[in-house]
Amino acid sequence: MWPSLIRFPGYDVVDKFGESAEISKDETEPIWDMGGAYTFTTTAQEFHISSSEDTDTQEIEVQGLDENFAAQTVTQALAGNTETVIGNSSVLWMRVFRAKNIGSVDLAGDCYIYEDDDVTAGVPQTQTKIRAKVSAGQNQTLMAIYTIPAGKQGWLRAWSASIHPVATPGSREADIRLYVRPFGQVFHVKRTRGVSNPGSSLFDADISIPSPGISPISEKSDIKMEAHVIGKAGHVSGGFQLEMINMISP
Rounded to whole angstroms, what are the CA distances from 223 to 1, 143, 186, 226? Predict the structure, then answer.
């Protein structure tokens, strides 16, 4: 029986969605707004935040997991280009999977969340240390990446993706893949789908019954969507929805 048929304490819904503004021909990348490869933190540590625009002082709500993989949410005010610890030195992170501007003014610059790094005009200089980005004008992260909190199980209910041209017209295609990495293991591909433009540039698939090949997704498992683009560079969007319940012991 799907957990959605039973409402009880500990039930929740997670909707993750992201986009990559441009994935080059023959490249494979996770679907997130920073673009390029995504690196998961391996040792809990302080995370930092800054903006590429020195006038940005908005409060940013950061959602992720602490050193024990428990869910945590911290609000931190930007200090423009200045690298600022999120929370304080006692707040440690293993994951960040969403951040949003909760102030009353739009971000003028791009906001970055990252492991401690050299920063130039608010921009961290090491791609592999960046964990999330809030692009100017968006006010929220766009990343099809998530980690199941400790004590929870995730049940995949739907996933979707689309592709469209970046600049020049012409055929482009993408193989879309959904991966799950159980804690302490490697990433396993769980779903694949193709999209093309022109053609079937969008798919949106509901999962009406639980699939033993993917659900339930155990605690501390990492989930990501990737796109391999063929033909010409493409703008790829994608996301997935999970039903979350407290972990059920045998």
Answer: 23, 11, 11, 10
